[in-house]
């Protein structure tokens, strides 16, 4: 008759038992739902776009986090890669810039189903930050329409106009475009103001605009 205790002890001494795999917390997928946005800091949309560096024959990545009410690019990441840890830093930067870590009501963050956004790292960060993360269904970019619109502008008014020779050139051009977009580019949907100007004025005295349905 086999003595199971002796077998276990022998295996342990010979270091041939495989350690038990840690069970990671699984986060339920929350589908994006229809919302009416009435102020800043209620809904952020985020997505990733790539550009090409001709002189180095490689791609670079831009992740933007946009407030759908005031149209501001609250935070962004530019890099030769864009991993889960990078999108976490962008979200953290957005919350810090808007001073929302101590706020009772925090924005919902909406994304597509890219690997960075469905990662355990990103979901854990959202839980830690105390914000809700919702994902649009596959093949429904219209549910992330505001960030899609910004990335079309980025493509047409910046990326398509340059033949980047270095990553440094690409970084500078994209950074300058986002600054221009936030500070000087006017939007008819926010009373022909720039996102930064609208956000600042709206904080002092609410500016009525057409309700934002997403």
From TrEMBL:
PROSITE patterns xref list: INTEGRASE
Annotated GO biological process: DNA integration
Source organism (scientific name): Paenibacillus endophyticus
InterPro entries given in the database record: Integrase_cat-core (IPR001584), RNaseH-like_sf (IPR012337), RNaseH_sf (IPR036397), Transposase_IS3/IS150/IS904 (IPR050900)
Pfam families according to UniProt: rve_3
Record protein name field: Putative transposase
Single GO MF descriptor: nucleic acid binding
Signal peptide positions (record): none
Residue ranges occupied by any Integrase catalytic domain in the UniProt entry: 24-203
């Amino acid at each position: 008759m086999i003595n199971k205790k002796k077998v276990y002890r022998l295996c342990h001494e010979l270091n041939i038992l495989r350690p038990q795999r840690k069970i990671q917390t699984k986060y339920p997928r929350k589908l994006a739902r229809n919302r009416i946005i009435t102020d800043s800091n209620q809904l952020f949309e985020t997505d990733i776009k790539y550009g090409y560096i001709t002189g180095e024959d490689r791609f670079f990545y831009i992740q933007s986090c946009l407030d759908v009410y005031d149209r501001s690019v609250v935070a962004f990441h530019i890099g030769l890669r864009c991993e889960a840890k990078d999108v976490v830093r962008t979200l953290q930067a957005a919350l810090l810039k808007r001073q929302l870590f101590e706020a009772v009501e925090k924005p919902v963050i909406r994304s597509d189903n890219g690997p960075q956004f469905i990662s355990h790292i990103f979901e854990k960060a959202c839980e830690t930050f105390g914000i809700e993360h919702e994902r649009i269904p596959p093949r429904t970019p219209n549910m992330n329409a505001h960030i899609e619109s910004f990335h079309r502008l980025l493509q047409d008014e910046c990326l398509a106009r340059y033949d980047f020779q270095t990553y440094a050139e690409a970084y500078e051009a994209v950074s300058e475009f986002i600054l221009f977009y936030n500070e000087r580019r006017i939007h008819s949907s926010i009373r022909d103001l720039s996102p930064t100007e609208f956000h600042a004025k709206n904080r002092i005295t609410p500016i009525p605009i057409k309700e934002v349905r997403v």
